[in-house]
């Protein structure tokens, strides 16, 4: 039996439909050095975060939120780093704690 072009198209469509989905894209690496400009306002809530701090916080928000999803780390950050809430507020970033 000779395969018709329609049969080849049907076979190709079935093969594509049955193929597993592509793997998710790799997660970006955490670069906590980008949060270095945030250290002064983190330690002294009277200081206003710089634009560099806000850019770093925004770019690393997913990584930062992943780190503080660990309960002991979250408790430490919220209890011992006085400026954390103010930085999130000033940078207009939704806090993840």
From TrEMBL:
Keyword hit for Transport: yes
UniProt keyword annotations, A-Z: Lipid-binding, Signal, Transport
Alphabetized GO MF terms: lipid binding
Keyword Phosphoprotein: no
SUPFAM superfamilies with a match to the protein in the record: Bifunctional inhibitor/lipid-transfer protein/seed storage 2S albumin
Superkingdom of source: Eukaryota
InterPro entries: Bifun_inhib/LTP/seed_sf, nsLTP2
GO-annotated biological processes: lipid transport
Signal peptide range in chain numbering: 1-18
Record-given protein name: Bifunctional inhibitor/plant lipid transfer protein/seed storage helical domain-containing protein
């Amino acid at each position: 039996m000779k395969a018709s072009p329609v049969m080849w198209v049907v076979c190709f469509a079935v093969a594509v439909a049955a193929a597993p989905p592509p793997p998710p894209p790799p997660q970006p690496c955490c670069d906590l050095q980008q949060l270095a400009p945030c250290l002064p306002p983190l330690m002294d809530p009277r200081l206003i975060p710089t634009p560099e701090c806000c850019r770093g916080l925004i770019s690393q928000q997913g990584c930062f939120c992943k780190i503080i999803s660990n309960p002991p780390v979250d408790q430490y950050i919220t209890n011992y780093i006085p400026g954390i809430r103010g930085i999130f507020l000033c940078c207009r970033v939704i806090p993840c704690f």
